[in-house]
């Protein structure tokens, strides 16, 4: 696979692939401060639930270095403020909070500022490295579940550049290419930010995966006329009952999958599950700036003063989800089944 992973940590310096410039520019930018990290996340320079978590973890490691030499009590106060700052960047992807909470757990066990600064960097690197293997495993499990179905529809970008490597929903396509299993992927362009048209098309082309971009309103006609055999999507937060928040437009694909009687799969790591909430009704849905809808690039497409509703996510109810593919296996979107997963992994998920 020749796609660059979107995040690099080299000798204490954090660099990300600026996804707002893809597909026409591949530009790496350095995030030197916690403010740089916050802005990169909120402006979608780095995006995708796992990638947001990894970057925020490095952001906390960067912030900690400012406090070299202060007493541990002052360190704890200031790093907690930094935690709250980064947690305020985007509300829906639970991986952001999962990663930040995991970083803060490191702090609880240490009593010297210098030791804590070192340990925070080590923990951020662990979160990053673990994600690559987790996504590869999700890809393996998805490949086995797809089991010869080759025509697959997806939305947004749940690929390598949304994670540490491989991606989640796109992982079977990248891995399949490495194993000689060729898919025909149909990618919804994903208005308004166009993650499908800009990022998934670019990413799959880098792996020589057959990809066709459609506009979001072509989904039903495409399923009917192109013989789509399955739909696979990523996730930003999965509630205890299996309700799943993902990019806006995902819910209607699940409704179409149900109508056309084809499987609808969610691919996500354990870090995307939020067992603290009962159902999708409890998932905060990010609303973004009107300009994302009123403009395409610099070009305004609506009349001046047009009202806009711009939710970045929607919630697919568990009854519409055929299966949830994780690194630990494949699960029904069922409260009791997922409760067993939660119990089995409680320690692992920290
Ligand atoms: C592998 S998680 C990717 C997930 O995140 C995306 O949202 P955004 O581009 O706003 O960060 C989308 O919901 C993807 O499914």
From TrEMBL:
Residue numbers marked as site, Transition state stabilizer: 156
Enzyme Commission number(s) of this protein: 5.3.1.23
InterPro entries per the UniProt record, alphabetical: IF-2B-related (IPR000649), IF-M1Pi (IPR005251), IF_2B-like_C (IPR042529), Initiation_fac_2B_a/b/d (IPR011559), M1Pi_N (IPR027363), NagB/RpiA_transferase-like (IPR037171)
Keyword set, alphabetical order: Amino-acid biosynthesis, Isomerase, Methionine biosynthesis
Residues reported in the UniProt entry to bind substrate: 47-49, 90, 195, 246-247
Superkingdom: Bacteria
UniProt-annotated catalytic positions: 236 (proton donor)
Keyword Isomerase (UniProt): yes
GO biological process, one term: L-methionine salvage from methylthioadenosine
Pathway, per record: Amino-acid biosynthesis; L-methionine biosynthesis via salvage pathway; L-methionine from S-methyl-5-thio-alpha-D-ribose 1-phosphate: step 1/6
Gene Ontology MF annotations: S-methyl-5-thioribose-1-phosphate isomerase activity
Top-level EC class: isomerase
Family: Belongs to the EIF-2B alpha/beta/delta subunits family. MtnA subfamily.
Primary role: Catalyzes the interconversion of methylthioribose-1-phosphate (MTR-1-P) into methylthioribulose-1-phosphate (MTRu-1-P).
Assembly, per entry: Homodimer.
Protein name (database record): Methylthioribose-1-phosphate isomerase
């Amino acid at each position: 696979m020749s796609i660059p992973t979107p995040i690099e940590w080299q000798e204490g310096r954090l660099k990300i692939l600026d996804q707002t410039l893809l597909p026409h520019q591949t530009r790496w930018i350095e995030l030197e401060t916690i403010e740089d990290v916050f802005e990169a996340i909120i402006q979608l320079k780095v995006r995708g639930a796992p990638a947001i978590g990894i970057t925020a973890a490095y952001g906390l490691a960067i912030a900690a270095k400012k406090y070299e030499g202060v007493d541990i009590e002052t360190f704890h106060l200031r790093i907690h403020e930094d935690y709250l700052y980064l947690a305020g960047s985007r509300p829906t992807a639970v991986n952001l909070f999962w990663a930040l909470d995991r970083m803060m757990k490191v702090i609880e066990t240490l009593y010297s500022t210098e030791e804590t600064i070192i340990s925070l960097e080590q923990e951020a690197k662990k979160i990053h490295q673990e994600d690559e293997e987790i996504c590869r495993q999700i890809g393996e499990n998805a490949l086995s579940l797809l089991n010869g179905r080759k025509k697959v529809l997806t939305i947004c970008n749940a690929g390598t550049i949304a994670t540490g490597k491989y991606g989640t929903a796109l992982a079977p396509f990248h891995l399949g290419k490495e194993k000689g299993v060729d898919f025909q992927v149909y990618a919804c362009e994903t208005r308004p930010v166009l993650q499908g048209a800009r990022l998934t098309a670019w990413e799959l082309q880098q792996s020589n995966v057959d990809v066709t971009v459609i506009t979001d309103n072509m989904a039903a006609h495409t399923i009917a006329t192109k013989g789509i055999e399955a739909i696979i999507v990523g996730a930003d937060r999965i509630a205890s009952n299996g309700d799943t928040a993902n990019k806006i437009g995902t819910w209607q694909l699940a409704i179409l999958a149900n109508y056309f009687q084809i499987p609808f799969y969610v691919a996500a790591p354990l870090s995307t599950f939020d067992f603290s909430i009962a159902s999708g009704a409890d998932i905060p849905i990010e609303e973004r700036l009107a300009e994302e809808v009123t403009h395409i690039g610099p070009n305004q497409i609506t009349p001046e003063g047009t009202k806009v509703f711009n939710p970045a996510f929607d919630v697919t109810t568990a009854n519409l989800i055929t299966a949830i593919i994780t690194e630990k296996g494949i699960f029904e979107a069922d409260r009791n089944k997922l409760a067993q997963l939660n119990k089995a992994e409680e320690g692992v998920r920290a």
